[in-house]
Design a protein that fits this description.
mainly alpha; Rossmann fold; two-stranded antiparallel sheet; 3 domains; about 70% helix; about 650 residues; Helix Hairpins; single chain
Length: about 650
């Protein structure tokens, strides 16, 4: 009980300073508010700097001359300028001269300058090589290092955006080209189908012509035999004229023979005209196939197959023309023989008709042997021409078969359609989007810095509180008290001040900075235990080293700011900072604040609270037993500040 009585007595003696020195009350209130004001000013300035980059002026110089790319006029520089101004990432100012923009940056009028060269579109749009389109970013780090860092990050984002826009344009061209190819393929398939149908009809006609030529050849062979027999008989006519008179044919038989010969001549004339027309059609077919072969070579994807099929079509058509020419030659010979046969038959018929007029006259009118030999040769020519016609039609049939096969191959080689790539141009240009899962999210830049600067504010508050009182001086009445009682009594007012500082910081965090606190009671406890621990450290340093201890407290603050990992991970600092980090209270205070504010470190608080409490306990023990107390009378028992 004596311990608490002595501590309470010393506390009351410390409290008597407030009525005696009115300015001490004002100073104490100021010390309570200054840490929160410090945190408010700094955190408000760094809370969300990205929201104000539009006020940062930057020069933009567009020298791009554009490019005519596949029938489209493209100017990526102008599109980039328009897009940047619409997004208002920075306060861009158009400048026409590159040197003027660079001068403005060096003079500090502009944060940086973006220069788009005149050949930017010409190098970037075709995409013939990586990083072909160069953008120049002119920045002075000496003017503002953080501004230069912003400009560098902007350059990376700009490059990504430009590449996305270029890919979108290229995919648009691919889609439009595919659509055109689909239309051309449909027309080609339609023409090939019509050509295939015509070839099949030609094959059918040739089959019929071949059948007729077989019958014609058989008839011509029979006719040739009959003519030979006829001439032999005529030669014997002179020897057996009287017998012929008795056995001469009737008048209607001679008329039928004459009519049949005339019909044979007429049929051969019609056959010659048909073969001529068929040859002309085969020539047109060969010309069309050659034109098809030449015009389909450049079609993407299927041009080679179409051209090969068209080549086979042209070869078949050429063979068809050759066969038709052979057929025409044979038919010409056949027609000549038929004409001669018709002449001989007419004469024979007339002679036989005149036979009834007189055997004597008939005998004198019998044709000479030379004429009969001509009749024999004509029959032979007729048989030979029929055979040639048959051979020509056989070749024509083979050619039409190859023509049909080539067209079938062409029709099978043509794809059913050319499928355009699925999706839109934008989707093809940027088809992958990383999915980011965030734990313990931090709402903005200010919130991210808050744990570091809240800890700094608490430390500054404890230091300023220590300046209010003589931490090594007690009134004479406290001399009988024990060391722990003396320290507890001395800390009474200071503890109240730092506790008030913590409350003010809490209110500022919630209502002025509008920061969301994930675990509010734990956050408040962290502020209090940290403030008490910091106060005990500063008191211990002052008790041990006097006013030099307060200076040491400031040096320790700077060391902790560099080693506690408040702004950057301590691993990035390396060296001595990484080694000292586990031994500094800031490390655990910042960890506890992050856990209570954002739910970081899986909201685990026992370890950092234990470390903070142990540091405070060690500082309390040091303050109790290290250093001496100076006991003074009432006149010297006054605040440390001259107020």
């Amino acid at each position: 009980m004596a311990f608490f009585r002595d501590a309470l007595a010393i506390f009351r003696m410390e409290m008597t300073l407030f009525p005696r020195f009115p300015k001490l009350r004002i100073s104490a209130v100021g010390v309570m508010l200054i840490p929160a004001l410090y945190a408010l000013i700094y955190l408000a300035s760094v809370r969300d700097p990205g929201a104000h980059t539009g006020d940062l002026k930057a020069a933009i110089v567009n020298l791009d001359q554009g490019l005519d790319y596949r029938g489209q006029q493209v100017n990526m520089g102008q599109e980039m300028v328009t897009s940047l101004k619409q997004r208002h990432t920075f306060g861009f100012v158009d400048m026409a001269v590159e040197d003027d923009a660079k001068l403005a940056v060096r003079q500090g009028h502009m944060a940086f300058a973006l220069i788009i060269p005149k050949d930017f579109s010409a190098n970037a749009v075709p995409g013939q090589e990586a990083a072909g389109g160069r953008l120049q970013l002119y920045v002075s780090e000496g003017n503002n290092y953080n501004g230069a860092a912003l400009a560098k990050r902007f350059a990376v984002e700009l490059g990504h955006q430009v590449n996305t826009n270029l890919n979108e344009k290229r995919w648009s061209l691919v889609l439009s080209t595919a659509t055109g190819s689909i239309d051309k393929l449909a027309q080609l398939r339609k023409g090939a189908a019509a050509l295939q149908d015509g070839a099949h009809r030609v094959a059918g006609g040739v089959a019929k012509a071949e059948s007729g030529s077989k019958a014609l050849s058989t008839g011509a062979d029979g006719l040739n035999t009959a003519v030979g027999q006829l001439t032999d008989g005529v030669k014997q006519l002179g020897a057996g004229l009287h017998t012929m008179d008795q056995q001469r044919p009737a008048a209607q038989d001679l008329a039928a023979l004459k009519s049949g010969a005339a019909a044979l001549v007429t049929g051969h004339a019609a056959l010659g005209q048909g073969l001529q027309e068929l040859q002309g059609g085969a020539q047109k077919l060969a010309d069309g196939a050659e034109q098809l072969r030449d015009e389909t070579k450049g079609i993407p994807l299927v041009g080679g197959k179409i051209s090969a099929g068209a080549g086979q079509l042209a070869n078949g058509a050429t063979q068809l023309g050759t066969g038709l020419q052979s057929a025409r030659n044979g038919q010409t010979q056949l027609a000549d023989g038929t004409q001669k046969l018709s002449t001989g038959v007419d004469k024979l018929a007339d002679g036989m008709a005149a036979l009834g007029g007189g055997i004597h006259t008939a005998a004198s009118k019998v044709p000479a042997d030379a004429k009969l030999d001509e009749l024999t040769h004509g029959g032979q020519n007729l048989a030979k021409g029929a055979q040639d016609l048959r051979d020509g039609l056989t070749q024509l049939k083979a050619g039409s078969r190859e023509l049909s096969a080539g067209l079938d191959m062409l029709n099978q080689s043509l794809p059913g359609d050319i499928s355009a790539p699925d999706g839109s141009a934008r989707g093809l240009a940027d088809s992958v989007e990383p999915a980011i899962e965030i734990v313990a999210p931090v709402p903005n830049n200010g919130a991210g810095f808050a744990p570091n600067f809240l800890a700094t504010s608490l430390w500054m508050g404890a230091v300023m509180s220590a300046f209010l009182f003589h931490l090594r001086r007690l009134p004479l009445a406290a001399q009988p008290a024990s060391r722990p009682a003396r320290l507890m009594g001395k800390l009474g007012v200071l503890t109240g001040i730092v506790a008030a500082q913590s409350v003010v910081i809490l209110l500022m965090t919630l209502f002025l900075l509008n920061l969301h606190i994930a675990h509010l009671p734990q956050f408040m406890f962290t502020l209090l235990i940290s403030a008490f621990s910091f106060l005990l450290i500063i008191v211990a340093l002052t008790r041990a080293f006097g006013d030099a201890g307060k200076a040491a407290a400031l040096i320790l603050l700077i060391l902790q700011l560099s080693s506690a990992g408040g702004v950057l991970p301590v691993e990035l600092s390396g060296g001595i900072y990484q080694t000292l980090s586990p031994w500094l209270p800031f490390t655990y205070v910042i960890k506890a604040l992050r856990a209570t504010m954002f739910g970081a470190f899986n909201s685990e608080l026992f370890s950092p609270w234990l470390a903070i409490g142990l540091v405070g306990a060690l500082a309390w023990l040091s303050a109790c037993f290290v250093g001496t107390w100076k006991f003074v009378g009432p006149d010297e028992h006054r605040p440390a500040m001259d107020i």
